[in-house]
């Protein structure tokens, strides 16, 4: 099973404000015309999306569900409210990362998109992430929810490529070299 992170951070390494706000992210009006920063190409390779409850609740607050018909697994030990409109593709799974990967592999999924700070940290800590695509937004927000947290061991990475966009965004891709899975 391959698992990839595709995420944006502030230049100082935060994925959201302390209250979960992402108002500092550039909007569509800030993007180059037709530029999606490789998102569509990436999402087309993904079989399922795994995210934490907070990320799910944030995505649910958008005007429309951003993942279309892709299967989405929300990791939460509490009940998750899933509206009927997305109930066929969204499910809640109260399981640890290794168990999630096992269950989804049994269902035939081969490539997971892992999203959300705690979820990414959990998967990374267990050696279940193979690739990181991180887009740095040229803004300092000073405090917030960090992308990375404490790890049980060093995680070595190999730089694959970096792309720079006209509006100042810088996207770097890394391969995870350590595999404790």
TrEMBL record:
Coiled coil: none annotated. It holds the Pfam family RibD_C. GO terms for biological process: riboflavin biosynthetic process. GO terms for molecular function: 5-amino-6-(5-phosphoribosylamino)uracil reductase activity. Residues 4-170 form the Bacterial bifunctional deaminase-reductase C-terminal domain. This is Dihydrofolate reductase. It comes from Rubrobacter tropicus.
């Amino acid at each position: 099973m391959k698992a990839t992170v595709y995420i944006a951070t502030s230049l100082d390494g935060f994925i959201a404000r302390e209250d979960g706000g992402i108002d500092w992210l550039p909007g569509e009006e800030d993007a180059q015309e037709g530029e999606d920063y490789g998102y569509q190409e990436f999402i087309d390779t993904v079989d399922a999306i795994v995210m934490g409850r907070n990320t799910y609740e944030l995505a649910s607050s958008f005007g429309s569900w951003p993942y279309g018909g892709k299967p989405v697994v929300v990791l939460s030990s509490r009940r998750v409210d899933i509206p009927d409109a997305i109930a066929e593709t969204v499910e809640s799974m109260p399981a640890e990362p290794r168990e999630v990967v096992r269950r989804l592999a049994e269902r035939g999924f081969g490539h997971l998109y892992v999203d959300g700070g705690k979820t990414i940290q959990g998967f990374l800590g267990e050696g279940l992430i193979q690739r990181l695509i991180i887009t740095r937004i040229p803004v300092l927000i000073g405090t917030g929810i960090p992308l990375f947290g404490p790890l049980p061991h060093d995680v070595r990475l190999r730089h694959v490529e970096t792309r720079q966009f006209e509006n100042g965004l810088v996207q770097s891709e890394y391969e995870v070299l350590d595999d404790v899975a």
